[in-house]
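ingest -> fold -> write
write: protein_1
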Amino acid sequence: WDGLDNTRVALRDITYKTLSRGQPSPMRPFMAATCYGDPALALEVGAAESRRLNFKSLAPAIVKQKRDDRLTVGYLSAGFCNHPTGQLVRRLFTHHDHKRLRVAMLDIGVDDGSDLLRELRGSCAMVLDLQRLSDHSAALAIRDAGVDILVDLHSWLQNHRMAIAAHRPCPVQVSWLGFPGTSGSSAKTSCAWAAVTSPTIPTPS
């Protein structure tokens, strides 16, 4: 571990210089968000990665008249299985007000055959298996299913599918839970963080 601090500083400085030249970031968003405590760095790295996924928004879907007035909230993740994300949301879907909301699972993960995956699928009104679809096709499927609010539980985690949200399949798109920082993406309207994992840090003036 000798020299670790100097290496971290050098990588941060190289990243800032590289981004200032408009070149791809040598640092991945997860490292920027978790290893430095520097919100400006996390934002710049996330934004640089997101600009590479700056796809044209999909045209609004032609959706048949809904059977009721409920909003459809779609949760996007690769972790709806025996995975930390799956454990964290195990009771989430059952605690929604199902008179007002329709819950959709937008699954980009592999079926691990677990009881937890079956339990989570059974607690949702709609399940879209998107793992084998391209990013564009997955975005079309979400749009055509009439999902009103997209909640991305995955963001820049390993094997991310950030390009799905980059197509803007939903009117409202937010990040929550899985990634401990900003995605830097203009395709997301907001994000919700826990104070423990993402404490408020004063922005340098």
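write: protein_2
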Amino acid sequence: LHRFSEPRVLFYGDREGIQQDVFGKIAMAANGGIYIPDKNGNILVGPIGKQTIFGSHPTKDPDQDVLGVSRDKSVWIRDSKFVLYSIRDGVYHNADFPRNESPTCFLETARGEIWIGTRAGALYRKTATSWDEVQPQIPLAKAGVTMMAEDGFGTIYVGTRNGLARWKDGAWQTWTKENGLPSNIITAMRLGTAGVAWIGTASGIVRVDGDKLIVVDKSRGLPDEAITALTLDKQGNLWVGSHSGIFRLCKEALDQLAQAKPARLTADLLNAKDGLRYPEGRPFVGSWLGQDGSIWMAMLRGLARISPDHIATNVLVPETKVQGVLIDGQPAASLQNLVLPASASRVEFQFTALSLLRPERNRFRFRLVGFDQQWIDGGTQRSAVYTGLKGGEYRFEVIGTNNDRVESLAPAAITFTKTKAFLETPIFTLLLLLVATCVVWLAIQLRIRSLKARHQVALAERQRIARELHDGLLQEFQGATLKLAALQLRNRDNLVGEQLDGVISGLEKSLQESRRAIQSLRGRQWDGVELYAALVECAEGLCREAKVKVVCERSFHLMEPKADIKDAFWRIARESIRNSLKHGNPAQVQLHLSSRGNELVMLIVDDGAGFHVEEVRLRTGSHFGLVGLEERMACVGGKFSIESAPGKGCRVEFRVSLFSAKPLFREREIKREAARPGVI
């Protein structure tokens, strides 16, 4: 039977004469010969199927491991009693290795030194007469050495069962899971160019470049993280053995790993269909690059040989096609002018790539224009499912690749429309806005009604207190004043009469203040009353009593504000003029009311004594009433400013927007008044 083309993987196992029960560590010589122990205590060498006995153990020990081959063609082996031998010209020579140590791996450095690693984690270097332990020791606890390698700069990497160590310039540097490794168990090692080392672990691959570590695992695209072997081919591609099989990582993708946002790696596992009868790799044994460029890897039940240069590439461009669409599990009758009902909740697109060579390795990426922001890697899956699509127009596109990543020239596409549900229509949006507006309006009305009720309660309580004061306290004061006046008439010619005259004057002033307070409690009725007329009446009344000149002015086209602004301005004007008359002793007071744009502005100016504004603001218990003026303006959303200096009078300006002023029923004012004793 003649084989016209080789499979991608040639496997050598028990059928080809390699027995599983004696397959431990093997090694490859510089000439391509493979050294394998057999169950009869021999070391075989030569091409597979044509091997000859290279040497026989003195005691025919069937359990031997080949650790390595030195440049002088000596083969270093360890037997079942952990004795280290070197075989030269077919003769076993005891290497006189320390008897208390168990050799596990071999390294010949560029300078010709022989290094042996042990199960206990020690390293020994061969001298002319003995073995010297490398000092200092590897700073890793229970670090059984699994493999060693030297790069082109003389740096030695040592893999252990408890981390990775690097020997450079006579000092150790170590890495474990605590500082970057995905696993402490080092299972494979391969040194690349420019000082880059590739380290295989039980949980992924690590790229070591100087002090920088980059972990490559399933999140980066590895098909398997349990690494058993690593080998670089002549093109710089990394061939990886794992528990699931063998795969290749191309050099271009590996070079991108050092970038800020590297692309996701892509790799296809070689399995039984590629000639790999038993895909599970054997860790800690190693892999080799033959003189002809072929790659050899130790598998659990044999040897795998790959010839990268002889692997044929499928260059046929696959044609991608959308086969069908399932709407809620039911196939669409036609893909032309496809319209989905508004009730459709699940849409499945079925597609394929017309490539019959290893079709199970065809891969796909797709996107739904109008829903996806970028292409989605679907792997080998031949369907894509979307749920929760909103009404609108969509375009589904899919691109297929064959088993060798050759991509189709153009994506297969299908355009469809999904009918909008009632909840997605403009009518529903308008109804929703209308309902929301009604709810907000109702809430505002309820709030206003509540504030009105509280305000009416506060006004009623004010009026009750005013009546009590007028009918009780003021009447008593008035009666006392009349009695004192009668007593003063009888004693007007003596000292008592003069003193009573002063007392009566004080009582009359107190009565006037009390009447003003009662009037303030009762408030004003603003129906049919102009603000300017009320301000003029207030200013002239106050200044007439104090015998101070008052000048009132207004601008043309003055807009009449709402009642709450009228009340606030009237109270503020009264308080400001009273403060001016009481503390400033002015000769003249000016009041000016005007409109500026949509603002109502009231200006009160006097030529009195003036004061330091900041000192008054900081003075606790000040009698100038600045805090009260600011609070009243804040209640209607207005602004208050004052300018004054000693000897230069005072200028106070109040302004409020006529369109954005706060309503009459001011919650803060009601709460403040409710906090006063006897006021609700």
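write: annotation protein_2
The chain is about 25% helix and 30% strand.
Helices lie at 251-255, 426-490, 495-522, 531-546, 563-584, 613-618, 626-635, 667-674.
pipeline exit 0
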